[in-house]
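User: quick one, fold this
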Amino acid sequence: MRMVGDLERIVEQQDRSATFELIGQLADPAVGGLTREQIRDALGRLRDPRAVASLTEIGRDRERPAEVRLAALQVLEHTAMCPEGADLRAWWDTGDDLVRACVLRQAERSEADLLEPVARDPHHLLHREALSGIVFRFEEPRWQQYKIQGLDHPDPTVRWTAADILCWDEPVAAEPALHRAAADSDTDVACAAIDTLRYYHSRATLRLLHEIAQGDDERATAAQDSKEDMLDDFEREQLRIRQWIAPVADLLGPPELDTPPLGPSEPLRPKPSAPPAAEIVATYSDLDGPWAAKLDALRRYDWTSVPAVDRPGLAALLSGHPDPEVRMLCCPILSTWQEVDSLLALAHDPELGVRKSAVYDLRFVPRSREIATLTWDLVASGAVAGTCGYEALATCAAHTPPGELDDRLIELARTDLRESIRAEAVSQLGGQIDPLLSLLSEPPLVTWAVHAQLLDACAKSGLHPPAADALRAVDNLHLAGALADLDAV
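Assistant:
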């Protein structure tokens, strides 16, 4: 049995020579809960792709104790090594609730048909797992409503989950419900709501956090932390939007009238040159042993130092590597080398993180109609949202001749239900926003991001749309800042 000190060294070095011994200990029913938790966490840090088959077998074996199966599934989840697509659906088809819970937490937009019936049914046994599964990339208004409704669930663990996940998309409609949840009878739920409220930059929320912070319990401590975090943003803006901020000025410290001069910055140290190709091949072909330094090297080396003659072979090695983290980290390298074919292949990788990185780094290679088509299809099909969505649209714009995408961008900004896509569409239009100014008179679909983006474009273009005046009554710090920028033009 490995001791805690051994685990610390293994984790620090990502020493994958310990992988299969740790899997054996994880699967041992005699291992105590705390020790199994430590082993689970160590395996999660190792991120060894060779562990997937064994962990999958353990997690899906109904004859094993539930705590053993759950630990194995948690390693797969935390390392993003669960299956995707048809293979993930096959897990759902087992009818095994332990496995199905994992499926719901790992589902992507392609599995929305599995997620949505559970997310909208508060009585479903796996409702909490479905809410956990829609944290990212499920940004349309109906998904936000499922999260908000979770704040009123009779089960406090569901309410806690809803309060926790609402920090990500920050839907305007959630703010009143989070205010109520801050007074929840369950302290954990209330503290989760209070923690999330730090991301809802309104005067009403700042005032509420201040009032809760006057107490002497856990809620007060959480409120003070959230209030201090929010105050940083308010104090930074108070001179620029003095009138708007006046109702909460008593909560703010004195404004910084002069920005202290920045000291001389240290010169950037040159990156070390990459080793010879033969050494790179030997290093990354060995899947065993310590991997922390190997992964760090992918970020640290100056890959422009690799001779052009060696690049195609190394591109094939890295882009076809069995470790998805290697494939993900090699994307900027491939972009630097202009290895477009390898990047295009990774844009279809089985693992989401790899696909996302490839699509992002395709933005920096020479303009290509193939890349424009690939990324437009991702956006138009609805397959991507959130960060993946706006990065795909930005890459599409980078590979499309100026003006050619404008009509499609206008249509996205008007009709798409994904907030990230709408805001990025406005951003990519630059000054060509006249057809969209009527959106300033409409309520926010999810957040005020589209309105703020339009105001920013107006300021840069010297436009002063009358509809902007109605937004001055909105209680949102970022929108008030955007209006101040407009007024300054």
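User: anything notable?
Assistant: The CA atoms of residues 230 and 472 lie 20 Å apart.
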